[in-house]
Please model this.
Amino acid sequence: MKQSGIDHFSGKRVWVIGASSGIGEACAKALLLQGAKVALSSRRAERLNQIALNGDTNQTLVIPLDVTNDEQLQAGYKTILNTWGGVDLLLFVSGMYIPLRADNFDIQIAEKTIDANLLGPMRAVALVTPDMLKAHSGHIAIVGSVAGYSGLPKALAYGPSKAAIINFCENLYYDLLPTGVSVHMISPGFVATEATAQNDFEMPALISAEEAAKEILDGIHKGEFDIHFPKRFSRFLKFLRILPYPIYFWIVRRFVKI
Model:
């Protein structure tokens, strides 16, 4: 059994959570160009209003919210239901990244990271899934990271949050495949965004947010579950996962100069 993709985005109702910058902004703009109806969500209302100008009248909804606030998410979804009657694609891009290592580990930052990066997507999925199950159709796409594949430097909270997203998506796919609801697990490598601008180390195979958006929308179009990119980097990290730990840690220390 293979899950379905989206033949075209024209007229599709898409909720992009995390649309105010980076990958989310690039996806939102690309979707608007392809004729989708896009609900734009993030905490920064002024940025969302600017992005909405890329669409025609009645093509966008601006729904400011914080993904750690369940009431705001519920109100946002209710607005979409009242206006458009439902969602064809939930594209959850929102997340936070603060570099952390053991010598500067901050449990409060870790808790905020897990709340935004793991519980945030779970809250959104819990909202849209019942209606998608009733319709026997719909798409859930969640942006994780190749940092979730295995332990990497400066990702003491971010890495575990993205590893959990991989497991969450795998479970969703298993449960939803027979129902007609498609799941897309998105694992980008290094993408030039506000978040990665914090990094003070070389980022191999760095790509633009626009390139990332194209990979994501192409993968959803094809019905892919495991959307990872850029392949030259993500495939290398997938290979590292199967190596014995002594070899894995030696390679990471050898090639990650931080």
The longest strand covers residues 182-188.
